[in-house]
Design goal:
Distance between the termini: 87 Å
Oligomer: single chain
Number of strands: 5
Strand content: 15-25%
CATH architecture of one domain: 2-Layer Sandwich
Radius of gyration: 35 Å
């Protein structure tokens, strides 16, 4: 009888599990890979940034005929270089960030020997300002706080109150009474 009574809470606990919804019984809810789990919780997504961020300003500085070293200085090292296609550099960029739309771009540099032959740039390559705005997930609400007063506001402030019982300054009074310290080079117990 005792083992049966001891197992009743366990049986009741396991019986309660049958009332939990399962993925099969809830086809209208998105999966864990969606934006929300069970339509309520938003899981943390790891920010993944891969490759080279290239902007219109960076690409505009690169001209055909430049040597590979100069292209590398202006655009950075390519993400992909293939030993079988030494005349092609792939600048791949992908970003997946929570709260921002995923982005993926591919810029291809074609070389003829050591000189740049062509640069294939996608149409959606953003300017630097547009790229920063696209990945900025911090968007403050409302008006920005005012940090300084104007001269008119400053002159409208009441003058500070001066009380008659304000303590005199330390320079006018001299050293504070009761604060006598031994010299720093004195040995302990000698008094001087």
């Amino acid at each position: 009888m005792r083992p049966l009574l001891a197992s009743l809470p366990l049986i009741a606990l396991l019986g309660g599990c049958s009332y939990l919804p399962t993925w099969d019984s809830l086809p209208s809810l998105p999966s864990v890979t969606g934006e929300k789990v069970l339509g309520v919780l938003t899981p943390y997504r790891v920010e993944v940034v891969q490759g080279n961020v290239l902007t219109k300003e960076m690409v505009a500085r690169v001209k055909p005929g430049m040597p590979k070293a100069q292209v590398r200085d202006l655009l950075g090292s390519p993400l992909l270089t293939d030993i079988f296609h030494e005349s092609r550099w792939d600048y791949v960029f992908t970003i997946r960030r929570q709260g921002a739309a995923p982005q993926q771009r591919l810029v291809i540099a074609q070389f003829d020997g050591d000189k740049l032959k062509s640069l294939d740039v996608p149409d959606d390559l953003p300017a630097e300002k547009d790229f920063v705005a696209a990945i900025n997930t911090f968007k403050p609400d409302g008006k920005q706080p005012k940090l300084e007063l104007s001269e008119a506001e400053r002159s409208a402030l009441p003058p500070p109150k001066r009380s008659a019982e304000a303590a005199p300054t330390a320079a006018a009074e001299g050293p504070a009474p009761g604060r006598v310290y031994p010299p720093l080079d004195a040995k302990p117990g000698t008094g001087s």
